């Protein structure tokens, strides 16, 4: 009998869209030309249906070279759309004339796993810049809770999960003047990818002493050692923008951008820059300036290997700016959420055929001198003996320790009879 393990087959993709740059220009005093540079990253995941021979138990003298492997398998993926709604109050003395700018970021993300469900929780931090009827520019910031359940069959609290929040639609509109409030409604898609850790038995090689075995091998790619790492990068910088003087900053758009990633054993080295756009008061009007802050950040962890795959998400956890005579003190806190894993190729046996009644070798004992690259497994397979018998006859304490030139006695395999 041949035991076979199966994995489910599934292809899925996850895309990330990042706004790298936005440029606007007024045309003929009537139209606004908008140019947006987007970075689109698409990852395709394959969870193939692979048949792996894990045991052969109908041949008494079968010899197998086994290897236990821990792999990460995709349990499944799921998504749900949630609606976060709220009415945001403004100062009672403000008669809102116009909404000028809205900024949204998803912060304080958290998940909980239970049987067949993922509970995803976060906050949508909303910053609204608005103009009042008496031409004052004001800014208000608030948070709206975001929560949703994602159904994924067979998921449990022993699994790990990657979660992404994608803004699908946004409605921002003022309520009536007397209410002094703004209505906010967001449609957010929560996408989850769930993984489980499996211990599988891989037969790397096999042979039979008394039968001829024919088998085929194929190469598959597996993912293992998947871990999630989180760390904080604190950036403090002085930015010179003389035009600002001591005027008020209305809003700052903070966009982190990773330029290069260098992976070493025990650490990841990031180089990047933070793109800033300031809206500030000048001569009773609104002006804007851009600035860049370069940064270098090293993330240390024993889970990082030089050959690992790295998927990095950077969130702006906090950004504070203080103006002092044309110089801006920037205090920015970036949260790095990193998923690391190792993709490696392994050979598996997927089909075996057995031919009985082969002619046995007539020798009773062979003297063999070990060659470079030999292992006891290779020698035993070559002479249709067993590792155990060779080690016993040669008094080898450790079957893994042989050396070139060593003389070994290779006994003929004898089927052991059991008295009844």
Could you provide a short overview of the structure?
With 420 residues, the protein is mainly beta.
* Amino-to-carboxy terminus distance: 25 Å
Strand order, largest beta sheet: 5-10-9
Low-pLDDT segments? none
Helix content: under 10%
Radius of gyration: 32 Å
Number of helices: 2
Strand content: over 45%
Query: Structural class from helices and strands?
Result: mainly beta
Global shape = elongated
Topology as a string of helices (H) and strands (E): EEEEEEEEEEEEEEEEEHHE
- The count of strands amounts to 18
> Taking all residues together, what is the mean pLDDT?
86
Largest sheet: 3 strands, antiparallel
Describe the fold and architecture.
With 420 residues, the chain is mainly β. It is built from two helices and 18 strands. Among the domains are: 227-342, no CATH class; 359-411, LysM domain (Membrane-bound Lytic Murein Transglycosylase D, Chain A, Roll). 3% of the residues lie in helices and 71% in strands. Strands 5-10-9 form a three-stranded antiparallel beta sheet, with no helix packed on it. Strand 2 and strand 3 (31-47) form a beta hairpin. The radius of gyration is 32 Å and the shape is elongated. The model has no long low-confidence stretch (mean pLDDT 86).
Topology:
Elements: E1 2-5, E2 10-27, E3 31-47, E4 52-56, E5 62-89, E6 96-114, E7 117-132, E8 137-151, E9 160-174, E10 181-208, E11 212-240, E12 249-264, E13 267-282, E14 285-300, E15 309-324, E16 327-355, E17 365-369, H1 376-382, H2 387-393, E18 407-411
Antiparallel strand pairs: 1-4, 2-3, 5-10, 6-7, 7-8, 9-10, 11-16, 12-13, 13-14, 15-16, 17-18
